[in-house]
């Protein structure tokens, strides 16, 4: 079922349960085309995508991440920052290599390019009625093991994953922050936004208490803070440096 642009963007929700039906070749070709047309910095296209449909590889990724939707989805796309291709081109043309890929800005450019590509894929898939679920944990669960499993060469670094499949569920649409917290006019708002934040926190708590498929008493602030605290233990810098990123001091 194809969707309008409005439906695609405003009715999107993460899908974690999928039918066994495969995604059609035509739909995957459309997703690939959308990925290829992603806007990137300098048109340098500092990213690549690994499309995983092999069950054994998905199973191994599931064992690393405990993210069930990885092994049950039809396709699991892994988006990576990629300077290996440019390094290959430099060598082939005899061009003096740049250290840009090893700088903080080089890493940032690669991550932004890969993230834009993920959104291109997500929107393309959603517009065809395909369920999607971004999975950032592919980057942090065990980056060394995932990189080895996917045979990532130096100059290629994990950014995010995207599960694709025919939806078997339609979860409630999660409340998002209101416009007054997200859209700032000309400059960042300078008034006290505490009341708006607490109001949103209460909205999420009410949503969690009433949502279909499993309720909870989670609020927003404490829940996200717990996520941040877990993230404090990730050694993302070392993992990126092992792949050749951010090794130049600037």
The number of distinct helices, counting runs of at least 4 residues, comes to: 12
Rg is: 20 Å
Gross geometry: globular
Percentage of residues in DSSP E strands: 5-15%
Task: Please write the string of helix (H) and strand (E) elements.
Answer: HHEHHEHHEHHEHHHH
What are the segments in which pLDDT stays under 50 over at least 5 consecutive residues? none
What composes the largest sheet? 4 strands, antiparallel
Strand order of the largest sheet: 1-2-4-3
Oligomer: single chain
- How many extended strands? 4
| Residue-averaged pLDDT | 96
Which structural class fits the helix and strand makeup?
alpha+beta
Amino- and carboxy-terminal Cα gap: 49 Å
Helix content: 40-55%
What are the key terms here?
250 residues, alpha+beta, 4-stranded antiparallel sheet, 12 helices, 47% helix, 12% strand, globular
Your description of this structure?
It contains twelve helices and four strands. Strands 1-2-4-3 form a four-stranded antiparallel sheet, sandwiched between helices. The N and C termini lie far apart (49 Å). By secondary structure, the protein is an alpha+beta fold. Helices cover 47% and strands 12% of the residues. It is globular and about 60 Å long. The chain has helices at 5-10, 25-36, 55-65, 68-72, 84-93, 104-127, 137-140, 143-149, 179-182, 194-210, 221-231, 236-242; strands spanning 47-52, 75-82, 131-135, 156-165.
């Amino acid at each position: 079922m194809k969707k309008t642009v409005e439906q695609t963007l405003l009715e999107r929700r993460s899908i974690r349960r999928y039918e066994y039906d495969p995604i059609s070749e035509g739909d995957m070709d459309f997703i690939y085309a959308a990925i290829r047309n992603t806007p990137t910095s300098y048109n340098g296209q500092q990213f690549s995508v690994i499309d995983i449909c092999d069950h054994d590889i998905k199973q191994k990724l599931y064992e690393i991440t405990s993210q069930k939707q990885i092994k049950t989805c039809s396709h699991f796309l892994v988006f990576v920052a990629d300077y290996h291709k440019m390094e290959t081109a430099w060598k082939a043309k005899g061009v003096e290599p740049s250290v840009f890929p090893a700088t903080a800005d080089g890493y940032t450019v690669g991550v932004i390019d890969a993230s834009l590509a993920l959104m291109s894929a997500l929107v393309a898939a959603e517009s065809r009625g395909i369920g999607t679920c971004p999975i950032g944990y592919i980057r942090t669960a065990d980056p060394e093991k995932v990189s080895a499993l996917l045979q990532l060469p130096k100059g290629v670094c994990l950014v995010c994953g995207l599960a694709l499949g025919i939806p078997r569920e339609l979860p409630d649409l999660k409340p998002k922050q209101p416009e007054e917290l997200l859209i700032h006019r000309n400059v960042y708002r300078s008034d006290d936004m505490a009341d708006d934040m607490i109001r949103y926190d209460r909205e999420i708590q009410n949503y969690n208490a009433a949502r279909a498929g499993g309720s909870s008493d989670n609020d927003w602030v404490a829940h996200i803070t717990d996520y941040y605290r877990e993230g404090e233990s990730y050694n993302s810098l070392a993992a990126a440096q092992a792949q050749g990123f951010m090794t130049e001091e600037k």
